[in-house]
Amino acid sequence: MSLPPETTPPGGDRVVLTLSCPDQRGIVHRVTGILASLDCNITESQQFGDRYTKRFFMRVAAVSEGRADVLDLLREAVADLAIELGGEWEVHDPDVRERVLVLVSKEGHCLNDLLYRWRSGLLPIDLVGVASNHPDLRELSEANGVPFHHFPVTPTTRADQEARILDVVRRERVELVVLARYMQILSNDLCVALDGRAINIHHSFLPSFKGARPYHQAHERGVKLIGATAHFVTADLDEGPIIEQEVSRVDHTDGPEQLVAIGRDLEERALARAVQWHSEHRILRNGDRTVVFS
Q1: Spatial CB neighbours of 149, under 8 Å, sequence gap ≥ 6
Q2: Global pTM?
Q3: Quick check: is 136 catalytic?
Q4: Domains within the chain, CATH numbers bracketed
Q5: pLDDT tens digits along 91-117
Q6: Which of 62, 131, 166, 190 has its CA 20 to 30 Å from the CA of residue 258?
Q7: What separation in angstroms does the CA of 215 have from each of 88, 124, 185, 242?
Q8: 23, 39, 50, 238: which is the annotated catalytic residue?
Q9: What DSSP designation does 180 have?
Q10: How far is residue 226 from each of residues 96, 111, 205, 244, measured CA to CA in Å?
Q11: pLDDT tens digit string along 204-236?
């Protein structure tokens, strides 16, 4: 069940509340009652009850009627409710943009797309830096006014290199790390440190076409459908909870170069949506899956 987004009335403080808990009666009534008691007008409401995991998920956007302390009061009230329900919750100010660090290697198509969307005001984020194990994309990053960090890595320096990445994350108060075709496997320790706040993008041939030149492998097998997957990063390589996927039909007339071009476009679109939904607090974890209130 959902109510369509509405235009935000002027003069109010906006809030976004997310909640997940074991499914039970009265959750919506209690949440909306809290918002009403704080003079909040609901502008968007989405709920989902998963009959397989027996969990309930909710995202509510609202506008306060002139209460300057609404965020603190709402957090206090929802924290008490979540304890009763045995759930997890977050309360956000949507006018505070999420701080994002992008990790890249040599391929720049996803970074270029994110930079364009950010500069155009299409992505509600603060892009605070780009970090890479290669220097190739420095010019692209700095031309868009984004600091570039070159952190070379070898098998013997991986721990130090990842420590430098985490230093940027902490120093810049990064809330989301985006692996925009970052061709390095993150250590278990880094995956744990970034749990729930790192998104990766890759082609959707896995596990069929692993390794180098996957689109050439796909062409040799005569695939008819290609795609891209955006997912949370976990210690299980490329197997984190899926956020978004894009697909396109292809045929025998498409050579490997055409498949690569189509695949890059799919990667850009899937990753951009995942970043936007995360920045708007629309993604809730549901075990090894996600609930996305898009």
Answers
A1: 129, 130, 131, 132, 164, 168
A2: 0.91
A3: no
A4: 2-92 (3.30.70.260), 98-292 (3.40.50.170)
A5: 999 999 999 999 999 999 999 999 999
A6: 131
A7: 41, 32, 20, 21
A8: 238
A9: S
A10: 36, 21, 7, 14
A11: 765 577 777 888 888 888 999 999 999 999 988
